[in-house]
Specification:
This protein has 548 residues and is of the alpha/beta class. The chain has helices at 54-65, 80-93, 107-115, 142-149, 164-169, 219-227, 245-254, 272-280, 318-329, 332-335, 368-380, 396-402, 404-407, 437-453, 496-507, 531-537; strands at residues 14-18, 38-39, 46-49, 66-68, 71-76, 97-100, 119-123, 134-138, 155-159, 178-181, 208-212, 231-234, 258-262, 296-303, 340-352, 363-365, 384-389, 412-416, 435-436, 459-465, 471-472, 484-490, 515-520, 544-547. The chain has 2 domains: 14-280, no CATH class; 296-547, TIM Barrel, CATH 3.20.20. The strands form 6 sheets. Strands 14-15-17-18-20-22-23-24 form an 8-stranded parallel β-barrel, surrounded by 5 helices. α1 runs parallel beside α6.
């Protein structure tokens, strides 16, 4: 990857001259004398092109996708009209688009040398020192490009200024359109140098997907990617490929041999390789995409599947529980219209016990296979599922590992309930339990590793808390693992004033990033908040509201 500190110019509004008929060769040259560029799939499965300088970005993309090209297109680094018209010419011909700085250190000259370019189409006044190469210069107009390349272009269409990169990404090698900066008219140098040689396109890089953030400095690189026959997917400024359902679908459908991340926005993004591989799995969360937040808003029923003593989840059979979860979540759709509301089950997988039990840990572990039909039915209905652990005198990691096969499902997360984490001399309902942060971080590491190894969507890890002492040294919580979204779930009960005080206290000094959950108790809250009151009064707005 190359980098530079020169900012790119903003792309102006553009016109799209569409409806052309394609001819991928120069003016009057015989096809027998056609020259051929050579493309190459990058050897690495993931390549980063994150240059901030548009000229460097253009060179980096050319180097990533082209081994050689006897013909290249060059425009000035600050000439918007020339870049847009040059993009159309490059895609139509199937050759790289480079940007010239016009100075002694011009990166375009070095790339022309590497490509072995003998003929150059200069669009506009690029200031290029082309040496002894054959140069054809044209203004950034349809007539100029047509005369020099033999491409035939159609009528003008207006393209929104902010859609310039998207318009380039949509260019086709057949039926090439001409992009022209709004108001550019016939500005530019007089045409000179005649015609380019005919160009025989290289085999398209159909096994390459270019993820383009859409930032303006990447325009020439996007054109080069399309010229090479690579599939270009715009991420809408997102730098995590898991964030977009469309990108996940596109990567899963393409199953590319190589992915190129193109755009300065991708600079410094950790774990881009594994995030791209995860996106390529195609597996999506309920509600779409592979990232939990900020897209999703969860509404959960809490309890144990068998009976209502431990929560509302078990008050009715499974099918009715799914319906109840959907009905409980439904009012929130109008209250958080910018989010996708997803119903959830929080299933108590290990239940705090009054007796030590055969293993002496004061916790009764549900059999995995007894839970599986319940969990899978919820997932099939579009619900997210969280498995809640009340470990007694054992540790959270030991119990979490019992449910690995369920946690390998893409719609299943994990909750740790420190209230029920006892020391060796404690018993339930006599003391309120607590857990040290090192034990929590062990679970973070294990669950994140499991998620990455199985290319799963981001998992929710919930930490129940209603007293600061319940998680000691919480400031050392490991929030660095992007495989997880970690949530503090404030699950105190009683009067709303006391609950709000707890909510505010637990927010103080919390590490970042953290997400937040709130619990409404049907019987114990005084009074229980309505959905409207929950969204209006619990601030900042939680990402999860649970009902017990």
């Amino acid at each position: 990857m190359r980098s530079a500190s020169v900012p790119s110019a903003a792309i102006a509004g553009v016109l799209l001259l569409a409806g052309c008929t394609g001819s991928a060769g120069g003016g009057g040259e015989d096809d027998a004398t056609a020259v051929s560029p050579v493309t190459a799939t990058p050897s690495a499965t993931s390549t980063l092109v994150a240059d901030t300088d548009p000229a460097a970005s253009a060179v980096s993309t050319s180097r990533a996708l082209f081994t050689s090209s006897p013909v290249a297109v060059v425009a000035g680094v600050d000439d918007e009209a020339a870049q847009l018209a040059g993009a159309s010419a490059a895609v139509g011909l199937g050759v790289p688009l480079l940007l010239s700085t016009g100075d002694a250190g011009d990166p375009a000259v070095g790339e022309l040398d590497r490509l072995g370019a003998t003929d150059v189409l200069v669009v506009g006044d690029a200031g290029l020192d082309a040496g002894d190469r054959e140069v054809v210069t044209v203004p950034p107009t349809g007539e100029g490009v047509e005369d020099a390349t033999g491409l035939q272009l159609g009528d003008a269409e207006t393209v929104d200024a902010d859609g310039a990169v998207a318009a380039v990404a949509a260019l086709q090698d057949e039926g090439t359109a001409l992009l022209q900066a709004d108001g550019s008219g016939d500005e530019g140098p007089e045409a000179s140098g005649g015609e380019l040689p005919a160009v025989e396109r290289a085999a398209p890089l159909s096994d390459v997907v270019v993820l383009a953030s859409g930032s303006s400095e990447s325009l020439a690189g996007v054109a080069t990617a399309r010229a090479a026959g690579a599939q270009v997917e715009l991420t809408g400024g997102q730098t995590d490929p898991r964030a977009s359902a469309d990108v996940v679908d596109a990567l899963a459908a393409a199953r590319p041999a190589a992915v190129v991340a193109l755009g300065a926005d991708f600079a410094g993004v950790p774990g881009l390789d594994w995030k791209t591989a995860t996106a390529a799995s195609g597996t999506q969360l309920p509600g779409g995409g592979q990232l939990l937040f900020p897209e999703h808003f969860f509404v959960a029923l809490y309890g144990y599947p068998d009976g209502g003593a431990l929560g509302v989840l078990g008050e009715q059979p499974l099918a009715e529980s799914i319906t109840r979860a959907e009905q409980t979540a439904a009012p929130y759709a109008a209250l958080v219209p910018d989010k996708t509301v997803v119903p959830m089950f929080e299933v108590i997988a290990t239940v705090a016990s009054a007796s030590a039990g055969p293993d002496g840990n004061y916790s009764t572990e549900a059999d995995v296979e007894s839970l599986r039909p319940y969990v899978e039915a919820a997932g099939a209905a579009g619900l997210y599922v969280v498995l809640d652990l009340q470990p007694g005198r054992t540790d959270f990691l030991t119990q979490a590992q019992l449910y690995q096969s369920l946690l390998e499902l893409p719609y299943v997360g994990l909750a740790l309930d420190p209230e029920w984490r006892l020391r060796p001399d404690q018993v339930h309902l006599t003391q309120i339990g607590q857990v040290g942060i090192d034990e929590v971080n062990q679970v973070v590491t294990w669950l994140a590793d499991l998620t990455r190894a199985n290319a799963l969507p981001q998992k929710l890890l919930v930490l129940h808390q209603f007293q600061l002492r319940m998680i000691t040294e919480r400031e050392r919580l490991d929030t660095s693992r992007d495989e997880l979204a970690i949530m503090v779930h404030v699950d105190g009960q009683g009067g709303q004033g006391a609950k709000q005080d707890t909510w505010n206290t637990l927010h103080e000094g919390a590490p970042a990033p953290l997400y937040w959950g709130w619990k409404n108790f049907y019987d114990e809250d005084l009074p229980m908040l309505t959905p409207e009151e929950t969204v209006a009064q619990v601030l900042p707005t939680p990402e999860l509201v649970t009902y017990q």
